[in-house]
């Protein structure tokens, strides 16, 4: 989104077409100045052919190949474009550089957001300040208020996407300890968010069972994506592992505390709140890969089921206290330029 906004500032009349997944579109629908072409990933090649037919008469000046999956590269083959831009070889995955004519300049140890913004910089954009301006309809705020009520609250999204060997979820007991602390020390309820998968619902139920009555609202499986955005917008803070709602919090300007052990927060933590991420990644690399962070490649995952257990509840609580104190100070003195 900051890349799209930077392009719009540079060329206000440019036509921007975004080929986007079905789920992601439900989050970003209504975005100003963008034409969406929705691809349902479950349809495979037939869905790609439908997009090729839809865009058969369109030739783009530039195709920004910002998604590195091989599926996206195959889809790009059926699109007409004068210039195809992708990642430099060091950052490219799934041989993406074979599908593009021009590559980004090398950018060692770049955060994901910076890698995206490099596409705009390559095209000549100089004003690369960060703006999101997501569209959140009034009905989403009504949905959020029906869930949260009027009392101040945190949003906790305990689970990441259920993918093979993902291992990004923290413990039920850890979340319960943080919820207890937020309730007793700060008077903040915690609203649990997430999808409706059996794993997410089970985890939410277990967390709720360990918490005091009144300290938690279990909304897992009970919200739209726009409703989650509205919940996040009105929350005092967001707590989540390496998953979408952490970056939704960042986009909405809500203080965000990310939990990282299997992925490097210097590459993937909520960009504006990197200093408040709980970082057990060096410990995980040392414990399970038997190396130091400097000895592994940028973006190396630690694929071990116990890695997130290296995150201790006391560390999360300390970061939460610091984040809330930082936010209170900003409210008193005015926001910083960064956030």
In brief:
The strands form three sheets. The protein has a six-stranded parallel beta sheet, sandwiched between helices.
What would you note in describing this structure?
It is a single chain. The chain has helices at residues 2-10, 22-28, 44-54, 70-77, 112-122, 138-148, 172-186, 198-209, 225-234, 244-252, 265-268, 281-289, 313-333; strands at 16-21, 34-39, 59-64, 80-86, 102-103, 153-156, 189-192, 216-218, 237-241, 256-260, 278-279. The protein is of the alpha/beta class and 339 residues long. It contains 13 helices and 11 strands. The strands form 3 sheets. A 6-stranded parallel beta sheet has the order 8-7-6-9-10-11, sandwiched between helices. Helices cover 40% and strands 15% of the residues. The protein folds into 2 domains: 2-122, Rossmann fold, CATH 3.40.50; 138-333, Glycogen Phosphorylase B (Rossmann fold).
* Uncertain stretches of 5 or more adjacent residues: 333-339
Total discrete domains = 2
- Integer-rounded radius of gyration: 21 Å
* Beta content: 5-15%
CATH topology of the largest domain: Rossmann fold
